[in-house]
Amino acid sequence: MSLSTRASGKLSKVIKCRAAVVWEVNQRFSIEEIEVDPPKAHEVRVKMVSTGLCHSDLSVKNGVMEFSNKFPQVPGHEGAGIVESVGEKVTKFKPGDHVIPLYAGQCLKCDFCKSGKTNTCEVSIKMQEGTAMIDGTSRLRCKGKMLYQFMSCGTFSEYTVVEDIALAKISNKAPLEKVCLIGCGIPTGYGAAVNAAKVKPGSKCAVWGLGGIGLAAVMGCKKAGASEVWGIDINPAKFDLARKFGCTHFANPNDYKGRKFADVLLELTKGGFDYTFECAGQIATMRQAVDSSHRAWGRTTLVGIATFSQDLNVFPFDLICGRSIGGTFFGSYQAVESVPKLVDEYLNNELMVDDFITHTFKLEQINEGFDLMIKGGCLRSIVIF
Questions:
Q1: Which residue among 16, 99, 104, 217 is least crowded, i.e. fewest CB within 10 A of its CB?
Q2: Does residue 335 belong to any structural domain of this protein?
Q3: Can you list the residues of the chain whose pLDDT is less than 50?
Q4: Could you read off the pLDDT of 183-197 as tens digits, one per residue?
Q5: Residue 348 counted as domain residue
Q6: Is residue 53 located within the same domain as residue 155?
Q7: Shortest CA distance to 154 belongs to which of 87, 73, 86, 49?
Q8: CA distances, 129 to each of 69, 148, 290, 302 (Å)
């Protein structure tokens, strides 16, 4: 029997399992029994072991990410698990493989993938915007309704089905209850520094927002050899932990009320930062990051996602004089090939992962996990299935 119909010696069939479902915008997660269909051609069904709680999942639930406002939906895009079964024409995966689902998949056939200029894939973009599989449907159902899958992943489920172009096989030595963070947060921040901005040794850097992605950016700046890494946050309780990731200086905007914060930073740094990274996802802090970069060569990299209804206004003359602004998606990593390498770096003690994890929850506690996130009481929380 081919792998398309057999998994671990058993015929592939519909699986009933639990998932965290959002039925309507702004509602809390509801733990439901759902049905997960067998994978179709070029699809893989994965038994999830863990999933990270990312702020993007909260944004989906709250309707901030307009392209993903499709309900009912199973959020989650930062997971790790084990292949349970594969569909027809799947050649790179087999039952038992340890894997990480990818919201930034690679078809390797579209113009974007073949260009060599971007890590964005046209096919993956359509999947993300459709919040479903390539064919526009989902393999997840509940109470007779199709469940959309955030970023075509839907990792807040004990089982999920993803396209084979959106999956990375990793070392079976990696602890699946931890490396789920390599599915989003860590590469996004880390790659912003080492890939997108290409921080040079001896540089002065600043990171706005010392959450998981921000600290990953700090880690990337340190890895690249920055001489100064400033952590910018309104919560000074985060500063001690940030030193562990590589921060050398700190600044709290609330300590300088009555003054333009960017002017304060220009004074403190005697001219501005070589590189700034906005990881808070706020228009106001994006502007601070731009305005406190060196006017002749400062580069600002936007990492956080702001609301889709706001624009970032900048002075054209600033850009003419030498400042530059860019962004990064998944840390500018080619996910299919890079995620396994990042896992190997972690196994070789070259990449911090464990230190990001401050809390673990069971699936039925997922609302508690997001409540903690909203209060700022955690760095990164993980659900263990």
A1: 16
A2: no
A3: 1-9
A4: 999 999 999 999 999
A5: no
A6: yes
A7: 73
A8: 9, 11, 29, 21
Q: Are residues 18 and 57 in the same domain?
A: yes
CATH of the domain at 96: 3.90.180.10
Name 59's Cβ contacts closer than 8 Å, sequence gap at least 6. Answer: 65, 305
Structure confidence by residue, pLDDT tens digits, 12-45: 799 999 999 999 999 999 999 999 999 999 999 9
> Does one domain contain both 151 and 247?
no
297/320 Cα distance (integer angstroms): 10
Same domain, 70 and 129: yes
Structure tokens at 51: 């999933």
Q: Which domain holds residue 288?
A: 186-329
Give pLDDT, residue 7: 47
Q: What is the pTM of this model?
A: 0.93
pLDDT in tens, 113-131: 999 999 999 999 999 888 9
Query: What is the SS3 assignment for 81-94?
Result: EEEEEECCCCCCCC
DSSP β-bridge partners for residue 82: 47, 98
- Is residue 311, in this structure, part of any structural domain at all? yes
> 161 lies in a domain?
yes
Average pLDDT, the chain: 94
* Digit-coded pLDDT (tens) for 303-319: 998 777 778 888 898 89
Q: Kindly report the three-state secondary structure assignment for every residue of the chain.
A: CCCCCEECCEECCCEEEEEEEECCCCCCCEEEEEEECCCCCCEEEEEEEEEECCHHHHHHHCCCCHHHCCCCEECCCCEEEEEEEECCCCCCCCCCCEEEECCCCCCCCCHHHHHCCCCCCHHHHHHHHHCCCCCCCCCEEECCEECEEHHHCCCCECEEEEEHHHEEECCCCCCCCCHHHHHCHHHHHHHHHHHHHCCCCCCEEEEECCCHHHHHHHHHHHHCCCCEEEEECCCHHHHHHHHHHCCCEEECHHHHCCCCHHHHHHHHCCCCECEEEECCCCHHHHHHHHHCECCCCCEEEECCCCCCCCCCCCCHHHHHHCCEEEECCHHHCCHHHHHHHHHHHHHCCCCCCHHHEEEEECHHHHHHHHHHHHHCCCCEEEEEC
As for how many domains the chain has, the answer is 2
